[in-house]
TrEMBL record:
Residues 9-393 form the Major facilitator superfamily (MFS) profile domain. This is MFS transporter. InterPro entries: MFS, MFS_dom, MFS_trans_sf, Tet-R_TetA/multi-R_MdtG-like. PANTHER family: MULTIDRUG RESISTANCE PROTEIN MDTG. The keyword Transmembrane applies. Gene3D superfamilies: MFS general substrate transporter like domains, Multidrug resistance protein D.
Length: 409
């Protein structure tokens, strides 16, 4: 049976998301260790420059993404995927050749400016997938980034141990070049360039939406999900160290506990994506948020790693419900003429979550204790439910899940 074009695109864009996710995560776990080789830093200085090098990529992404989104709606999303993959090819490769920390920080800022492969891949599939398959398709596409993010630290650690820290950056650059070539040759997008004068203004795109309040709620939800997932990244190994009797097992146990939500999300995303096609992504989204609240609350009272691991596995189910549902709702309720901009705005909010999550987690952990961060995150997710519930209830009352303005285009 011959594949439809959107199905072929899904295969190659899944691989592109996989390689992009792996490329980002390959170098992140040992970034502070790499920075230590670039100069002589005290503890305070190392924390400062490491935090700056980490955060500046996401800050740049948050600022620049709407600009690229506008170009995506004007010239197509495939050119933006090519721009992102080629830009990251050069910037990440050069990160492996830097002579000092300041060049590294500048390059990571430029890397953030040129990122955007995943959200444009989402927009390509969203614009072409049939409405009845959108949940499953977007859920499947989301697993590409999840799998890559899971395997990246493992491959990066092997390369760093065998060939040094710089080798991971060079291999990542080569991987992004492969993504560029595959996207160029095998991803096809039916898109007619739109003149700047003829392009629908962003304000008009929001006016054309059936549920603009819902879309803003999705932006906030994306930021909250990312902030929640990132809030414990800076101290999870320290928390586990306080619960593991054998110090030699801390690194291994931390790696396993950190990866559990991603493994579960990988398995559950396509299943819950298909469920959203049947019952409605807005119901799956709200259910996922409520489940996240009930996962984070008992984390505040854990006494051993088994309890933490079990709750983080349940959190993976929640993530599997949330990520595809957000993408599916945008596919259904955003006009195609604004896909590039809206998906880019969503990426900006995700980047803001990547910056704010670790900051809030560190502040709360410093003021109280590590377990208090879980309480903070539960409150954050609970507030998100209260914000999103009125908009999702409005959608429940609508029988027709597909807006005429989008499907008429």
């Amino acid at each position: 049976m011959k594949r439809e074009r959107w199905q072929t695109n899904l295969v190659y864009l899944w691989f592109g998301n996989f390689m992009t996710g792996m490329g980002f995560s390959m170098t992140m776990p040992f970034l502070p260790l790499f920075i230590q080789t670039l100069g002589h830093f005290g503890k305070w200085e190392l924390n400062l420059v490491s935090g700056t090098a980490f955060a500046i990529t996401f800050l740049a992404k948050a600022i620049v993404s709407p600009f690229w989104g506008r170009l995506a709606d004007q010239y197509g999303r495939k050119p933006m995927c090519l721009r992102a993959s080629l830009g990251m090819t050069f910037t990440i490769t050069l990160c492996g050749l830097v002579p000092n920390i300041w060049v590294l920080i500048v390059l990571r800022a430029i890397q953030g400016c040129f990122s955007g492969y995943i959200n444009n891949a989402n927009a390509i599939i969203a614009a072409s997938v049939p409405a009845q398959c959108s949940g499953k398709a977007m859920g499947t596409l989301a697993t590409g980034n999840v799998v890559g993010t899971l395997l990246g630290p493992l491959l990066g650690g092997i390369l760093a141990g065998a060939f040094g820290y710089r080798s991971s950056f060079l291999v990542t650059g080569a991987m992004m070049l492969v993504v560029f070539i595959l996207t160029l040759l095998f991803v096809h997008e039916d898109f007619q360039p739109v003149s700047k004068a003829a392009m629908v203004p962003t304000k008009q795109v929001f006016k054309q939406m059936r549920y603009p309040y819902l879309v803003w709620g999705l932006f906030i939800t994306t930021m909250v999900i990312q902030a929640a997932n990132m809030s414990i990244t800076s101290f999870i190994s320290l928390l586990i160290d306080s619960m593991v009797k054998n110090p030699g097992q801390v690194a291994f146990v931390s790696g396993v506990i950190s990866s559990l939500p991603g493994i579960v999300t990988l398995i559950a995303s396509p299943i819950l994506g298909a469920l959203s096609d049947r019952v409605g992504p807005e119901k799956v989204l709200l259910g996922g948020l409520v489940m996240a609240v009930f996962c984070f609350i008992p984390m505040s009272f854990i006494h051993n790693v088994w309890q933490l691991g079990a709750l983080r596995m349940l959190l993976g189910v929640s993530d599997a419900a949330l990520l595809p549902a957000i993408q599916a709702l945008m596919t259904l309720y955003v006009p195609k003429s604004g896909f590039g901009r809206i998906f880019s705005y969503n990426q900006s909010f995700q980047a803001m979550g990547s910056v704010s999550g670790p900051m809030m987690g560190s502040i709360v952990a410093s003021m109280f204790n590590y377990r208090s961060v879980f309480t903070m995150t539960a409150i954050l997710e609970g507030l998100n439910v209260l914000i999103l519930f009125p908009a999702t209830r409005q959608v429940w009352r609508t029988k027709d899940q597909v807006p005429a303005v989008q499907r008429a285009e």
